[in-house]
Amino acid sequence: VNKFVLNLITEWRRLELPFAGETIVVAVSGGADSLALLLALDELRERKKLDLRIVAAHFNHKLRGRESDADEDFVKDLAAERSFELAVGHGNIPKEGNLEQNARNARYEFLLSTAKNLNAGHVLTAHTMNDQAETFLLNLIRGSGLDGLAGMRTVREFRSGGVVENEGETAQLVLPLQQSSRIDSETPSLPHSSTPPLLTRPLLRWAKREDTENYCREMGVEFRYDTMNEDMSFKRVRVRKMLLPMLKEFNPKIVETLAKTAELMAEQLGTPSPTGPDDGRQMPKELSIQELSRLEPPQLRQTLRSWLGQHRGGLRSVGLKHIRAIEQLAFSTKSGRVAELPGFGRVRRSNGRLSFENIKVDK
Amino acid sequence: VNKFVLNLITEWRRLELPFAGETIVVAVSGGADSLALLLALDELRERKKLDLRIVAAHFNHKLRGRESDADEDFVKDLAAERSFELAVGHGNIPKEGNLEQNARNARYEFLLSTAKNLNAGHVLTAHTMNDQAETFLLNLIRGSGLDGLAGMRTVREFRSGGVVENEGETAQLVLPLQQSSRIDSETPSLPHSSTPPLLTRPLLRWAKREDTENYCREMGVEFRYDTMNEDMSFKRVRVRKMLLPMLKEFNPKIVETLAKTAELMAEQLGTPSPTGPDDGRQMPKELSIQELSRLEPPQLRQTLRSWLGQHRGGLRSVGLKHIRAIEQLAFSTKSGRVAELPGFGRVRRSNGRLSFENIKVDK
Fold first, then answer.
1. Would the CB atoms of A264 and B146 count as touching at under 8 Å?
2. Which of A141, A146, A264 lies nearest to residue B264, judging by beta carbons?
3. Where are the beta strands (DSSP E) in B74-138?
4. What's the pLDDT at A160?
5. How far apart are CA A240 and CA A225, in angstroms?
6. Strand, helix or coil at B157?
7. Helices A32-46 & A66-82 angle (0-180, nearest 10)
8. pLDDT of residue A66
9. A262–chain B nearest CA distance, Å
10. DSSP letter (8 states) at residue B282
């Protein structure tokens, strides 16, 4: 068996992914990474190592005109050739704001709805150590704090981001095996699982981009190149094409080193709570400053985040500087009696306690 | 008062450095950073904000021939002009191994012995945010793990490193105020403090290199340039002159961002124990694997390090991969019964327990 396939099945076991009787969705762009993942899963299925319903999911962002459509055709042809089930979504990506972010949100919404329609417990994406190293550097450069240095997680719960309203998206589901039957009408009687699917990245910890490309070549399968990967107006492309090559002059194994560092960071921080910054502790309505003063800075910040998250109903737009402002409010004699939060809400100090006031702050 | 001096006194308070009645040693190379620190302390002393005995300490590494001696003369002249006490050491740096590391060890040994001779509780070095950003990147690139990402600590206990035998060093102490009296003969009756001095970096959290240069210029004081700072055969110089400029194109505040990230990392990891990896817990002779299995990875590793440090008498040459090998020994059914450590010693698993064997491993 090919080394790539062996590594995949080893990681599959470690991640406790299912071996039989379930449906998984595999995000496929047509590039080397996602094709390698799909082909390796196909090989494992043929060798009877896996007995799963594997559905490829391709999202056409419609951002590169004929090139986007050619990618879609390419994936459709491959699915037909290899007898893969395929779900295809078409995006109407909002042009306002961060285009990459909007495209990602639309794609993830499509993957989530596909998984829900299929009652799939897992969505796999083919991010590699290279993607992890790039994400680490991008987060480091923008000063994202320690959580950003943990990079992408190998497994996380897959929820609707809610960042972008994605009304323009239409999910066109193509199933070569059951031609033109829509998945959501195919399984109408099955109750949807109440637990959200997991987003899992089974290549993240061990595969490099050259591994996926080599495996595709060995399998005699062409892969698509995304011309956006050459567009130096994207920070990620500049990190890949300028920064990483310079770092490689210092350390030829820089990709592995950065990916490993992200993994250590994720271990250090622990698994992020599925419900977000609210870590499940029931927080009191008011916090005693005396009790807060006994906490070490990381615990203090975590407590303030949890408390705010619960009483404010989320931490949207609340950054480290706001948490620090609340620390100052609590412990500095020079600060005022109120710390205002972005968007809405404020924290008040009185009688040695902090309380949250859920009002809209006038500008 | 100058902003640089204001920032220094603010940090001085935060670090709980002494204001009167004590002796502090200030490491002075002759470059902008250390001169700015010394001049700012002089200003604070003249303004009666500080009432301390301030002794400048210059170590001539003798690595750059006449340039090194010119640096020494420059610092001597400045000390005479400004009526600073000055201690000068001359180094005989071993040429084998890492020259930068050897030079640093010799310098730190000199600073430590100077502080001990003077009964000084604090040695100050003038490392800036730029040094911190460079250290962070160097550690990141070489894959030092999370501790390296905490960078230099603002305060640490100052012990003899013991890494390099530094027999060639001769400390020639020059005291302009008490000409040619040697400090160690000057204070023979004072018992040396039993607590080691603290190494404190009062510029690390807020000053940039341009701040120290600007302050020197404002004070009308020339500073020395070290030609080694231009030598691209040093990794640190390449980080400063090639990598940081590229990162600056992504984020103009990259130095501040990296220094802040190091600070967050140091907070997350907690203060390193003064006694090193041994965190003060009395560790049992043997460790129960069942009890180890209840720990989260970071705590597990910390426990293994503490245990090894205590029973092996230090963690010299023990890296993450050796700690991981011990984890494997404990938890993997496939591993053998012994994990060997670099240099000497090994860990044995038997009857569900780990024990340390203090023997030299045959190669």
1. yes
2. A146
3. 85-90, 122-124
4. 52
5. 15
6. strand
7. 10
8. 85
9. 9
10. P
* CB-nearest partner of A141 from B238, B250, B298: B250
DSSP string, A210-234: HHHHHHHHHTT------GGGG-TTS
Report residue B317's pLDDT band, with 50, 70 and 90 as the boundaries. Answer: low
| Nearest residue of chain B to residue A247 (CA atoms) | B141
**Dist CA B230 CA A83 (whole Å):** 61
Q: Rounded CA gap, A54 and A38, in Å? A: 9
Nearest to A22 by CA among A32, A8, A31, A12: A12
Q: Quick check: helix, strand or coil at residue B345?
A: coil
Summarize the confidence of residues B247-272 as an average pLDDT.
89
Mean pLDDT of chain A: 82
- How far apart CA B182 and CA A20 sit, in angstroms, is 81
pLDDT of B175 above 60? no
DSSP-derived letter for residue A347 is E
Tell me how far CA of residue B112 lies from CA of A253, B158, B184, B211, in angstroms.
37, 7, 13, 28
Q: What is the 3-state secondary structure (H, E, C) of A30-91?
A: CCHHHHHHHHHHHHHHHCCCCEEEEEEEEEECCCCCHHHHHHHHHHHHHHHHHCCEEEEEEC
Which residues touch A245 (CB under 8 Å, ≥6 apart)? none
Is beta strand A170-174 parallel, antiparallel or unpaired with respect to A198-200?
unpaired
A 10 A CB-CB count for A206 gives 17
Give the three-state DSSP class for B23.
strand
Task: Test A261 with B141 for CB contact under 8 angstroms.
Answer: no
Provide the pLDDT for residue A161.
44
Q: Do B146 and A247 touch (CB under 8 A)?
A: no
Whether the predicted interface score ipTM is above 0.90: no
Query: Which pTM value belongs to this model?
Result: 0.74
Predicted pLDDT at B230? 84
Give A302→chain B minimum CA distance, Å. 11
Chain A interface, best mutation among B13, B129, B139, B140, by max A CB count within 10 A: B140
A11-20, A101-110, A190-199, B61-70 — most confident range: A11-20
For the record, the structure tokens of A50 come out as 């896996």
Query: What's the pLDDT at A74?
Result: 94
**A4-8, A313-317, B31-35, B327-331: range with lowest mean pLDDT:** A313-317
For chain A, the first-to-last Cα distance in angstroms comes to: 64
Instruction: Report the pLDDT value the prediction gives residue A27, as an integer from 0 to 100.
Output: 96
Find the length of chain B: 363
pLDDT of residue B177: 36
Query: What is chain B's mean pLDDT, rounded?
Result: 82
Confidence grade of residue A172 (pLDDT, cut at 50, 70, 90)? very low
Look at residue B149 and give its three-state secondary structure. Answer: helix
Chain B residues with CB inside 8 Å of A146's CB?
261, 264-265, 268
